[in-house]
Amino acid sequence: MKAIEANFDGLVGPTHNYAGLSAGNIASTEHKRQASNPRQAALQGLAKMKALHDMGFVQGVLPPQARPDIDTLRRLGFAGTDARVLEAVARQAPELLSACCSASSMWTANAATVSASFDTQDGKVHFTPANLVSKFHRSIEHKSTARILKAVFNDGQYFQHHPALPGTGVLGDEGAANHTRLCSNYHQPAISFFVFGRYGLDETRPVPGRYPARQTLEASRAVARQHRLKDEAVVYAQQNPDVIDSGVFHNDVIAVGNQHLLLCHEKAFLEQAEVYKTLQKATAGQLQIVEVPESRIRVETAVQTYLFNSQLLSRDDGKMIMVVPSECENNPTVSNYLSELVNTDNPIDQIMAFDLRQSMNNGGGPACLRLRVVLNEQELQAVNPHCLITDSLYSQLTQWVESHYRDQLKESDLADPKLLTESREALDQLTQILGLGSVYSFQKK
């Protein structure tokens, strides 16, 4: 049965701001408290979606979450009207307000882990929202993520939804940013490659010393069990603790894979040679590994430019397009490397660069913005069609953004009750455009 890989990008929310909430994410902390441009951020993301749609790829869109998150602030003891809650938290605990205003759900690579029906023993597409317990501002996302995913993939005949793993550090789960599906063709059973940063229950194992490792082996194994993946079709590898300390907070900052190709830095994994052997054995020697040496591109340069936080897209002719942020084009070292890459013996023969500066300044590139979902023809037909990009939907969403989003947002604006009202009005209209129903708690009051 024919299959495609659809990319579902997160639409940047109206409260997109630079609060520097993500320790270990260098771009996030470096731009802390700078003014952001939510309108430009959303339009940049939409432009990427539209461009891939125009090239014939199936492109979906996932809505942002409701922010400021008043429900969470009330759970933390703030009371009164919404305006009073915002005023009190801004005065007493501004760091909580920043966290509850984060638009980080735009990075849907962290939203969930998805397994294709070709890989699962029950023949369904499985979804597990990530608990994201390593960061408070992200740990409050998974319930809304679950509702949104169920509204987009809402046919129980084809889609199986699981709850997030228990919210404990032992089971820290960061979603698809640490999962890669390796196969010859999308319609064939694949190897699921899970990369983790630490062992949750074994303190004797190597860990980074500067920044926290977010994904645990125990979480990866639990997701594989939930999704009913065969043991022999799963490979686990640990991130190199040294690269985590250099700002590689997820595997998708240091490696990217698609079908039978894995592009990674030579320092990506612990015991990297053994990881390669295990992957080659699991894929019957069909995997092509392109390793980028430190002598060509230093880890720090890869983090600055997000070279590996790219999208690899398969064309019908068997070749691949590599979607990179414009920072790669603007860095001579990386640009030269990419020019050589397309002229060497590997499937990549085209580089496309996109201006995603608003997202990049907060620590997320092209790969962060999308959740990959492999679907057969029947499953694609079962997806909520209002969430698939068309020329008409792109125009609607562009007009929606231009009508509802501010072109500047500063830290002091987060307590503005008007921002809450603007965001809720915008999201209420968005759910109608995308045919999602009432996925936000404020819609149910």
Short description:
The protein has helices spanning 26-30, 38-54, 70-75, 82-92, 94-100, 136-139, 142-152, 217-226, 241-244, 272-282, 299-305, 326-330, 332-341, 357-360, 377-382, 391-404, 417-433, and strands spanning 3-10, 59-62, 112-115, 125-129, 159-161, 179-182, 191-196, 234-238, 255-258, 261-265, 288-292, 311-314, 320-325, 348-354, 370-376.
Report on this structure.
By secondary structure, the protein is of the alpha/beta class. The protein has 17 helices and 15 strands. The protein has helices spanning 26-30, 38-54, 70-75, 82-92, 94-100, 136-139, 142-152, 217-226, 241-244, 272-282, 299-305, 326-330, 332-341, 357-360, 377-382, 391-404, 417-433; strands at 3-10, 59-62, 112-115, 125-129, 159-161, 179-182, 191-196, 234-238, 255-258, 261-265, 288-292, 311-314, 320-325, 348-354, 370-376. The radius of gyration is 21 Å and the shape is globular.
